[in-house]
Design brief:
The complex is a heterodimer. By secondary structure, chain A is α+β, with helices and mostly antiparallel strands. Chain A is about 60% helix and about 15% strand. In chain A, strand 4 and strand 5 form a beta hairpin. The chains are: A alpha+beta, B alpha/beta.
Amino acid sequence: MLVAGVYYLAALPGMSFALPQTNATAIWAPSGIALSALLLWGRRLWPAVTLGSFLTNITVLLQAGIGTPHQALLASVLISFGNTLEALIGRFLFIRYIGDAPTLRRSHDPLILALTAAVSCTVAAVMGVTTMTVVGLFPGQLAGPVWLTWWLGDLAGILIITPLILAIHGMPAFPSSRRLLIESLFLVTVGITAFFLLTGNTPHGTAIAYLILPLVLVPAIWSGPSLTQLSVALVAGIAVYGAVHRQGPFQLPSVHSSLLLAQGFASVLALAASTLATAIAERKMREHALSRMYRNLQVLTRCNAAVVHAKDEHQLLQEVCQVAVETAGYELACVVYAEHDEAKSVRPIAYAGPAERFLSRVRVSWGDNEYGWGTIGTTIRTGRPVIAADLLQDPGYHVWRDLVIESGFRSSAAVPLQAHGTMYGAIGFFTREPDAFKPSEMDLLVELGANLAHGILTLRTRADNARLYEQVQRYAAELEQRVQQRTAELQREVARREQAQISLQDSERKYRELVENANSIILKMDRNGCITFLNEFGQRFLGYTESELLGRNVVGTIVPRIETGGRDLERLMEETATHPDQHTSNENENLRRDGTRVWISWTNRPIHDREGRLTGCLSVGNDITALKQTQAQLEVAKEAAESADRLKSAFMATMSHELRTPLNSIIGFTGILLQELPGPLNSEQRNQLGMVRNAARHLLALINDVLDISKIEAGQLTVERVPFDLPRTINQVIETVMPLAREKRLQLVTDIAPDIQKLDGDQRRFEQVLLNLLSNAIKFTEQGQVTLRCAREPGWVVISVRDTGCGISEQDQATLFRPFRQLDTGLARKHEGTGLGLAICKRLVDIMKGRIELSSKVGEGSVFTVRLPQP
Amino acid sequence: MNRPILIIEDNAQNLYLMRYLLEQNGFTVAAARDGRQGIEMACTSAPLAILLDIQLPLMDGYAVARELRKCESLNAVPIIAVTSYAMVGDREKALEAGATDYIEKPIDPDTFVDRLRRHFKADPNRFAPVEDSHAQSPDRRRQA
């Protein structure tokens, strides 16, 4: 509707200058508007063109009163179709020959536009003129000039208006106010100049009109197509105004012709200016692109150099950003790394430019969220270069729109930092101009990114390598040290082994000699009892060679199955072979090769292999045949001795009994006679009977002592250990011997210490010992005294009997306690006694675990001391 | 009438010796020549004391002593073993069998009667138990 409205309004001024009786006009801006509209907003807009054209024509035709309303309606419909067709064809041709973009970039584009417009305008003009003629709105002879006017009008419209609209459309949305002011001033200048030149009545004709040309060309060179097209449009408008008002250089007889002339001038001017402006713009753009390319290449080169020479990753990144800003002229360049955290955040590593304006104030992610739809996030996410041609329009920057406006950044691009499949992050670039990143530039930036990523990789690898190298060095050193250490160890080990080898050999030799020369049988057998080794001595002893025995069972060869005594040796051998540890020593009969049986004492030891399994038995044997024989003889002897002993005991008992019976009669009757019971005796008889009685008593004492000593020596005499009253026992014995002492007029002194109480022991045997010692003392003392002392010593009770008798020589002291050793044996036996008394005393004291000692000097007397244990 | 001292002794000389000695000291003596006769007589004659030889025919002295000790009427009668067995344990065997005292042969006429008399001198019935059974041992060694 808007387009239709504009179309209609734009058409009205032109229509006022239409040819009389026609609607063909030399001024037909709507053709340019229609084409521009379809180019800018698509061909779907054609109904608007149709509607606008229809309204315009019907209005003009009805106002002008040309033909009937029916004719006007029909003509308007057909003409509007023609105009629509013109616009559609024009658009088709534009796209076909100029390009999709609704802009005139190349220098020849305006010319192509003129050519295509010529074609499309032909369509409209033919359509229009034919319609008018057919409908009968004007006579056929007018068709030629009307057609020309129509065609020219449309053409001029396209040539002037379309580039203008396209140029204005391509202008920055927000041009700086300064530029706006300058351009406005210029337009005013152009307008005034054109007014003077094109409406002033000068005598110079149309030539003066062309003076405007340089002025129109100025913006083509200085500014750009938009201002140029505006100037052209302005000039064209003024020219038409001049022509219509019959002022200025375009003065022909008819207004229509003048208009055609002005129109032609404007068209040529438009074409020329447009072409020039486009060409210059193109050149400028190319120059710009080239310089940009150059700078980018420079950036790439410098960055590559930086990559190659970089020692430090951060420094490299910083340097690259610096180069990008300083050399390539980007406003801001930054390197970010992709963090592999949950938020997939992006970490700025290095930058150059006013980062604080934007970069440091935004949160960027490389995830697929609103913070990740910017160039950087998208690049990291997709791994592809991304351009945001206009940050204000870009939906990806919607979230940062305020910041974008504040920062003044208009476009951005980001390229991935990716090498060998590793995504490090991205480099982002921001500029203050929109659409700053061209494909060729992007290629370079992508390469830059790749190189930088490679640089990062190299640096990291180098760092890794350095670390690895260091590690390798360390390992090498360590290895070296270990090798030395191990070598030393090995040398020691070798030395040790050599030593061990030598000692092993020594030991082996020693043992071999030992085994070979041993005077023992050394035999090894396996678990089955089969012989695996027999030393030389064994072979000699048993009468076999080793080869005759190896592998053969011991039973049946060197061991008889059944021992002479009936023992089952086969079983014993089997048990020994399988359980040597339970048969560590055997004594058994063995068999020599010649059949003789020998007794051998074997010592057995189990043999184990490395795993500890029993493999056999090592036996060392010694010939004990002689020993066995001796043993057997001893057994017999012992038997004999024991039987002799028994006989002796029986003999002693019998002897004792048999001797006592006659002695009973002798002593008894002698006693009765001496008591003079049967009758009185004379002195001679008494004397002689006394001698008989003494002899008999001596005989009895002898019998008793022999009996005692034989009992002692046979070990039959035992002592009791019962507490008895020691002082009382001593006094009893003193009492017993008192008559003897008195008889010899000897003094008998007793000295018992007051602490002597009880003694543990055998009272009878103690009495026997004491009686014997006192009797002896009295017996061998002729004058003086006998003293008995009893006292305590630690652990002992000491009883001593001292006499003042003849004393005992040292020589005799040695043998005194032996049986049958009465002193003075060489002399006539002055003293009675069996000679067994002291021997019996000694033995009794020994049995009582006491000690008996003698201290004596010949002629001075003796002291017998008995010590009995008493705790 | 005096109660007799019963002597059980097979050896005629020994019997004669003891009978003579005792009779000379005023005792009445009854004699048996073997163990059985001795037991019989002991039970019938109510002896003052019994002198018992050990080596006897038919039945030895130990067995006789054991038999005699079975007879209640003889409970208070001292039985004195008079024997030539002087080996270790002989004395103990005799006392164990029931003898009151033990006198080794050969007997000493000087001490025999006194020794015997000790067994009944403190008693109104002229016998009493022996207190000192070891008394003979020192005596016997007087000449040693």
